[in-house]
Amino acid sequence: MNKQIGIDLGTANTLFYMKGKGIILREPSVVAKNSITGKVVSVGSDAKKMLGKTPGTIAAFRPLKGGVIADFDVTAEMLHQFFRKINTGGFFNRPNVIICIPYGVTEVEKKAFEDAAYDAMSRSVDLVEEPMAAAIGSGLRIGSPRGSMIVDIGGGTTEVAVISLDGIVVSRSLRVAGDELDDAIVQYVRRRFNVTIGMATAEELKKRIGSVHWSADNAEMDVRGRNMKTGLPTTLHITSGDMREATGEQIDRIIDCIKTTLETTPPELSADIFDSGIMLAGGGALLRGLPALITERTGLKVTVADRPLDCVALGIGKGIEDPRIIRNVVLSRSK
Ligand code: ADP
Ligand code: MG
Predict the structure, then answer these.
(1) How far apart are CA 120 and CA 80, in angstroms?
(2) Which residue of 70, 78, 109, 235 is most buried, as measured by CB atoms within 10 A?
(3) In the chain, where are the structural domains located?
(4) What phi and psi, each to the nearest 5 degrees, are found at residue 154?
């Protein structure tokens, strides 16, 4: 059987969409490797559980950095293992794949995505730019002559794009997104409480009580860490107010990136965006208070996509179900 699969290969998460089935795989883009034998021990959520906890012989890491493939062989192997996971019965052969690539990357980086998909499993590979897929997935009408703005806040990068007539008119990419927020939380807790917490704990804090605007719900949470003076384990009480302070600088940079993009948008299109507002996608769109803060700083209406973490995969999915939707945005039909 000749299957069609869409892949969102993100820095933080990888999603597979299968024609007629929808999203069939959602896994962290993490790999655990035995550093002596070089063998991949586990991938996805199993490997993510190992981050920061591995013994000397095993290294758990992310093969993508800042949106692009940093370790080619490991990325291809990770995709291959994900593919085996969805094809346990071996029911289908190499599928036709559409894979997303970040906007504005070099030809070499683009080719790495294409080749990784080939090596892992594919019969054919087509490429689609991520902001286009995110826009389609969040329900924006990309083919219309009206400009719309999509902001995708992922793990490694924030991508801001203005789209009109099936194309990207202006775009900016910033290497500040979810990971930098986690890092800022670790730094803040160290400075303020003299306690070291791990990245996984910081991410949990961000998801559960993270907030970037006073109007968002306030919450609190107890976390474990290590007291830097005594070296002993300790418990800390953290509030949403702490979260706002911890991540303020990074959030400012994300909003500045949106503002700079607006400043360089042609006037006709910025008038459209003034009417339609900004669409937020990616995991970072789930940060409490972010829509309110962006509206406060830009004066624009902000909508959060229905399923921000699934947006890109759903966008390729729509294109797989109805090729007319992405006819004008598929970049290469190779081999
Ligand atoms: P990528 O496309 O780079 O793989 P995703 O769009 O999958 O990234 O988003 C992953 C990022 O979103 C991670 O940094 C994660 O911590 C963050 N994230 C996920 N859920 C939430 C949430 N509820 N609040 C804040 N951040 C979140
Ligand atoms: Mg993404």
Answers:
(1) 4
(2) 78
(3) 4-132+312-332, 140-304
(4) -100, -145
pLDDT score of 217: 85
Q: Is 136 helix (H, G, I), strand (E, B) or coil?
A: helix
What is the amino acid identity at position 258?
I
Query: What's the pTM value of the predicted model, to 2 decimals?
Result: 0.95
Ligand 2 center–CA 69 separation, angstroms:
13
Instruction: Spell out the CATH class of 140-304.
Output: alpha beta
The domain made up of 4-132+312-332 has a fold known as: Nucleotidyltransferase; domain 5 (3.30.420)
Residues flanking ligand 1, CB < 6 Å? 10-13, 154-156, 178-179, 203, 206-207, 210, 282-284, 286-287, 309
For residue 127, list its beta bridge partners.
99
> Would you place residue 333 in the very low, low, confident or very high pLDDT band (cuts 50, 70, 90)?
low
State the Cα–Cα distance between residues 49 and 284, nearest whole angstrom. 21
Position 1, amino acid = M
Fold match between domain 4-132+312-332 and domain 140-304: yes
Residue corresponding to tokens 């290590």: 226
Tell me how far the alpha carbon of residue 130 lies from the centroid of ligand 2, in angstroms: 7
Lookup: tokens for 150:
């999509």
Instruction: With CA atoms as reference, report the closest residue to 40 among 80, 10, 96.
Output: 80
